[in-house]
Amino acid sequence: MLLFGLGKLVYVIVLLLNAISILSEDRFLARIGWGRTQASEPGFGAAYDSTSVKAKSVNLIASVRTVMRIPLIAINTIIIVYELILG
Is pLDDT of 69 > 90? Predict the structure, then answer.
C-alpha cells in the first residue's frame, strides 16, 4: 500500500480502531468492570478518581466510539475497494 511496511501499520491501526469501536459496553465492558456506569458512579463514600488508568481507558474507548464511527466507515470502504482493485 504505502511505502512498503507503512501500509501494514495503517492496516493495524485501522483494525485496532475497529476493535475498539465495536466493543459493546453492556455485553463486554460492564462484565469486566470497565463500563461507564461503574466508572462514573462510585460507591457511597468513595471518591471518583478520574486520573486513574482505568478511568482514562474507559473515557478513551467511549471517545473513539463516538468520534470515529463515521470516519471508520469511510476508511474501511476505501481499504476494501483498494484491496479489491489492486489486491
Answer: no
Helix, strand, or coil (residue 43): coil
Give the position of cell 476505501. 78
Report the SS3 class of residue 49: coil
If you average pLDDT over every residue of the chain, what do you get? Answer: 79
Question: Exposed, middle or buried by CB within 10 Å (0-12, 13-18, 19+), for 1?
Answer: middle
* pLDDT score for 24: 75
Total of domains in the chain: 1
pTM value?
Answer: 0.67
Asked whether residue 44 is assigned to any structural domain, the reply reads no
